[in-house]
Design a protein that fits this description.
Layout lengths: L26 H13 L4 H12 L4 H5 L3 H8 L7 H19 L4 H23 L14 H5 L1
Helix pairs in contact: 1-4, 5-6
Length: 148
């Protein structure tokens, strides 16, 4: 967004949308396992990586018919703010903390402005899609309470 790159990187999912024949996990077991990982405090993307690397489940959507976040929403375990917004806020807090110590870091200050503009843009999108409260407003002073 704030760079000149025109990368063509994209995920390459298999054409077939059925679960692999070698996968013996049932959708009910998988939903139960996802809920267990969410209760441990893992984010949806961390759950996906754990299932892929440790349990050999390539795509949750092919097995259950729903994505991980939708499964968590039906179970009432979805995070209060979306994951991408959460990580941008976390990054802005870390950079602001760095700038308190290193006041002359002009490059850091510039990048903080870019990060916070991305936060505002993403928050506006999520308010429009009603995934955030209409009263949600990012403020640097109260941002650490959102992440904690």
């Amino acid at each position: 967004m704030h760079s000149f790159g025109k990368g063509i990187s994209a995920p390459a999912l298999p054409y077939r949308r059925t679960p692999p024949t070698w996968l013996k996990t049932t959708p009910e077991e998988l939903v139960e396992h996802i809920c267990k990982l969410a209760r441990k405090g893992l984010t949806p993307s961390q759950i996906g990586v754990t299932l892929r690397d440790s349990h050999g489940i390539p795509q949750v959507k092919f097995v259950t018919g729903n994505k991980i976040l939708r499964v968590l929403k039906t179970e009432g375990l979805a995070p209060s703010i979306p994951e991408d917004l959460f990580h941008l806020i976390k990054k802005a807090i870390a950079l602001r903390k760095h700038l308190e110590v290193n006041r002359k870091d002009k490059d850091g200050k510039y990048h903080l402005i870019l990060i916070e503009s991305r936060i505002h843009r993403l928050a506006r999108y999520y308010r429009l899609k009603q995934q955030l409260a209409p009263t949600f407003k990012y403020e640097a002073a109260t941002a650490s309470t959102l992440v904690a």
